[in-house]
Amino acid sequence: MATTALQHSPMVIADQELNNLKASNGDVLPKIGLMKSSSPDLPIEELRRRYEEDGYLWIKDILDKEKVLDMREQYFRFMTENGDSGILKQGTNPRDGIFSGEDWRQFLLPGAIRVANGLKDEGVFVEKTLKAHVAHFYSEFKSDIAEPLENFVGKLAQFQDPMLLKRTLLRCNVPSGETTPVHYDQIYLRAGPPTSVTAWIPLGDCALTGGGLMYLENSVEIGKKFEADFSEKSKDLTEEERLSAFNKNMMAGGFLDRNAAVFGKFWGRRWLVAPYEAGDVVFHNPFMIHASARNESPEQAIRLATDLRFVDKAGPFDERWLFEAYQEADPNVASRQPLGSKKKTHM
After folding, report:
1. Residue 176 and residue 227: Cα distance in Å, rounded?
2. Which domains does the chain have, with CATH numbers?
3. pLDDT digits (tens, 9 = 90+) for 207-222
4. Is 136 helix (H, G, I), strand (E, B) or coil?
C-alpha cells in the first residue's frame, strides 16, 4: 500500500496506522495519503493558496473544543431522551457517543443516503433526526460559530457578503456501517454557480479509524469533468430536472459511486485521510470529490459531524438551500424526488 505524509502535516503517523483503512462499504483503500493541516494564524493569502491548490483546507483549532464537545453531548442526549432512538449503548456517557451495536441501517440520515440504500425515511431515529435539525441546541451552536466562520470564509473566498446557508446537515457514521458514498457538493447546489464553500466540522475527536471524511487527491478537475458530462446528458431535460441531483442521469441519491476504493483506483488517485480533533474544520471546493471512510473505532465511538455551506450573498447562489433541512418546505430531500437511475457507478 502506498502511504506518504504530505507537506504541512504536523503529525507523524506510522505506516501500519494507515494499513487496512477501508472505504465505507468495507473494501480496503489501495492508495492512501495524509491530508495537510494548516493553522488559522497563517496569512490569509497562504491559506487561500493552499485551498485553491489542494481543493480543501484543514484548519486546526479554529473552533472552541469544549463548545464542540458540548454540541456532541447535547445531540446524543437528544437522541436518547423522550423516545430513545437506540443509537447509544445503554449506561454510557452521551459525550462519548458509544454505539449500541444495533443494525447500522437504522441510523442512516434521511434523504439521499437512505435512498441509495433502498430505505424509507421512517423509524424513531429518522423522526428524531428531523427534529434535531431544528432543535434549540443545534441552532444555538450554529449561531455561535456562524459569524466567525462567515468572516473567515469571506476572506478565504474573497466574498463581498459571506452568508451561511440555512440548510445544514447533521451526520452520524456508526461503527461497521456504510454511509456517505463518493460525491462532490455542486451536484446538490446546481441552481447556483460553483462558488460555495463547504465547512465540514467533526463534532468530537475522530481518529484515522473513526470514519472521518476523506478526499480524493487533486480531484477538483475530475469533479468539473463529471459535471460537464452531466450537463451535456441533461441538456434536453426541463430546467427543474436538469438542476436536480436526482434526475434520470444520476445514481440514486445523486452519488458517483458506492465503492470509494474502486473509484480511487480507477482514477489513479490517493484518498487523503486525517486524524481530526474537536475544534477542527475542513473547508472544501464544491467540485472536490470526497466520501466517508469506514468507522472501525476500537472504542465503538460514533463519528458525528455537521456540514455548513457558505455563499456570497452579493451574487447568485442556490436558493433551494434557504430552508431548514428535512422540514416540510425543504425542496432538496432525495426521498421526495423522482428516483435517479439504477446505475452503480458513473465511471
Report:
1. 31
2. 2-336 (2.60.120.620)
3. 999 999 999 999 999 9
4. helix
